[in-house]
Amino acid sequence: MRLVVWQNSAKKESEVIAVKNHDIAGGKLEFRKFTKTHIEAFTWSGIDLAPSWKSRQMSGYIPDFTVGDFDNDGQDELVAALVIRDGGAVLLTEPKSTIIALQLGIPLKPESK
């Protein structure tokens, strides 16, 4: 799985974006089934990479993602393939997948005083 380093111009810092696919192990059968996933971003804290933000948890798994201007509005989005059902585990199961896009770099609202 790739990691993407993205320049967050709103925060004026770089973020490392990663996918976390959660799986269940198959024991003696030696298989992995991914059941849920989420996307996380990390920033350098001076000592280590600290969590910056996290997407909501989704059913399925993300095999790949990228960052780009998906809707041609001048703002970066994170675009990912989300496999909800791969169709290979159970006979006659219909595969299901979709594309998701998450807005990146939305400036934080100033705190009210």
Quick summary of this structure?
The chain is mainly β.
Report the structural category: mainly beta
Figure out the total of helices.
Answer: 0
Can you give the helix content as a percent range? under 10%
- Major sheet: 5 strands, antiparallel
Could you characterize the architecture of this molecule?
This protein is an all-beta fold. The chain is 0% helix and 57% strand. It has one domain (4-103). The protein is built from no helices and 8 strands. Strand 1 and strand 2 form a beta hairpin. The protein is flat and about 50 Å long. The model is unreliable at 108-113 (pLDDT under 50).
Q: What topology emerges from the helices and strands here?
A:
Blueprint lengths: L3 E5 L4 E13 L6 E13 L4 E6 L3 E2 L1 E8 L8 E9 L10 E8 L10
Antiparallel strand pairs: 1-2, 2-3, 3-4, 3-5, 6-7, 7-8
Distinctive features:
mainly beta, five-stranded antiparallel beta sheet, three-stranded antiparallel beta sheet, 57% strand, flat
